[in-house]
Amino acid sequence: MTGYQQYRGIQVEGASPLELILLTYDVLIKSLRLAKMAGEEKNMAAEADQLARALEALIELATSLDMENGGTVASSLGNLYAYMSRRLLEGSTTDTGAAIDEVLSLANSLREGWQGISDQNSGTGQPSQAYG
C-alpha cells in the first residue's frame, strides 16, 4: 500500500457522512476527467476502466440515499444518479465524449451544492437527511 493509499484510507475512516459524499464526488469527477482524456488519446481500455469507476461512484451515491427520511430531495437525487448512469452507458456506444461532458457538468454542480451544505454545517457535523 502506498503512502497515498494509506492517507486516503485514514481520510475515509475518519470522515463524516457528508465528507464521504464529497469524497465520492471527487472520485466521480476525477474518473470522468480521466475517461475523457483516455478517449481523446484513443485509449479505449483506460476509458472503459475510468467509466467503470465513475459508475461505481454513482452507485455508491445512489445507495447512500436515505429514501425514508430524505423526501423528495433523495428521490430526485436518485433519479438524477440513474440518469447519469444511463447517460454514461448509452454514451459509451455512441458519443462518449458528449456523455462524459454532460455527466461531468452535472457532477460538478452537485458537488458544489454538497460543498455549500458542508460549509453551512461546518462545526456542527450534521449532514443533510438526503445524503448522497
Keywords summarizing the entry:
132 residues, mainly alpha, Four Helix Bundle (Hemerythrin (Met), subunit A), 5 helices, disordered N terminus
Outline the secondary-structure elements.
Blueprint (H helix, E strand, L loop, with lengths): L2 H11 L3 H24 L3 H20 L7 H21 L4 H26 L11
Helix pairs in contact: 2-3, 2-5, 3-4, 4-5
Number of domains: 1
> How many helix segments?
5
Structural class: mainly alpha
Total number of strands:
0
Intertermini distance? 28 Å
Q: Strand portion, in percent?
A: under 5%
| CATH structural class | Mainly Alpha
Shape: globular
Rg, Cα atoms, Å: 15 Å
Give the overall average pLDDT.
Answer: 87
CATH superfamily: Flagellar protein FliS
Major beta sheet, specifics? none
Q: How would you describe this structure to a colleague?
A:
The chain has 132 residues and is mostly helical. The protein has one domain (15-120): Flagellar protein FliS (Four Helix Bundle (Hemerythrin (Met), subunit A), Up-down Bundle), CATH 1.20.120.340. 77% of the residues lie in helices and 0% in strands. The protein contains five helices and no strands. The chain has helices spanning 3-13, 17-40, 44-63, 71-91, 96-121. It is globular, with a radius of gyration of 15 Å. It starts with a helix and ends in an 11-residue tail after the last helix. The model is unreliable at 1-8 (pLDDT under 50).
